[in-house]
Design a protein that fits this description.
The protein is α+β, with helices and mostly antiparallel strands. The protein is built from two helices and six strands, in the order βββαβββα. The strands form two sheets. Strands 1-2-3 form a three-stranded antiparallel beta sheet. The longest helix has 9 residues. The chain starts with 7 loop residues before the first strand and ends with a helix.
Length: 106
């Protein structure tokens, strides 16, 4: 992303308790706050989402999440509209090529 932030803050995990034994046995959710992945180098807006959602979005090197209003429709298209953020995909050509080239998961 353009802002260079890959930060996570405040992870939370919930454990389900077995009513019969009182023991925790499964993970309910893990959430974290992530820094908006918009093109603005000065953006520090945070977006809360489940870690699994983050991993699903970022499994495609052309897809990013941005706070609503931070999308750049000249360079990306909205592929999903969530409560507090959009999932955007870089358009073919320069933006998508740069996103793929710079993807730390590649």
């Amino acid at each position: 992303p353009g802002n260079g932030h890959w930060g996570i803050a405040e992870p939370e995990a919930g454990i389900v308790e077995d009513p019969a034994t009182g023991e925790g046995f499964s993970l309910v959710s893990e959430e974290a706050e992530f820094v908006c992945e918009c093109a603005s180098s000065s953006c520090g807006a945070q977006i809360r989402m489940p870690l699994a959602t983050y991993e699903e979005i970022r499994s495609d090197p052309k897809r990013f999440f941005v706070v609503k209003g931070h999308e750049e429709l000249e360079y990306e298209r909205i592929v999903s509209d969530n409560a507090d953020y959009f999932i955007v995909e870089k358009l073919p050509g320069g933006p998508a090529g740069m996103a793929i080239r710079d993807d730390p998961r590649s």
